[in-house]
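Key result, reporting period 2: structure in, sequence out.
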């Protein structure tokens, strides 16, 4: 029951929150540099990394996507006539939640690792005047 409810909630959440952020981004792009800078200020730090709101939206939408995808795969398998036994059904339901959390952690871990691997920006040396 929980996985079925989460499937509906994540689908609705991705549709409403995802579209709202997408429309906000597109509106900021269309409104000009000042509006786009305001959009970036709300979601990122001065260094360009996500701030707490950026992480909340990014990780939340990513978790919603993976949970919805895994529950959809589970429904697909059940529509094919498999996993109706109580033990396998419950195990598959738990697996959808565990895999969605692991996929989210793996994706955001990879994104964070890429930021750590990036070479630090250095200031150019002053040119010597002769």
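The corresponding designed sequence is given below.
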């Amino acid at each position: 029951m929980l996985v079925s409810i989460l499937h509906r909630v994540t689908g609705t959440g991705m549709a409403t929150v995802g579209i709202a952020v997408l429309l906000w981004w597109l509106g900021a792009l269309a409104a000009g540099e000042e509006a786009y800078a305001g959009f970036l200020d709300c979601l990122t730090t001065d260094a360009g990394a996500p701030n707490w709101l950026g992480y909340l939206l990014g990780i939340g939408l990513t978790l919603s996507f993976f949970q919805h995808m895994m529950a959809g795969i589970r429904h697909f398998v059940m529509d094919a006539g498999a996993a109706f036994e109580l033990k396998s059904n419950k195990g598959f339901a738990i697996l959808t939640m565990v895999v969605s959390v692991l996929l989210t952690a793996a994706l955001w871990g990879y994104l964070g690792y890429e930021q750590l691997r990036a070479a630090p920006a250095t200031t150019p040396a002053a040119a010597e005047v002769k």
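The chain has a mean pLDDT of 89. The CA atoms of residues 57 and 110 lie 17 Å apart. This case is discussed further under Risks and Mitigation.
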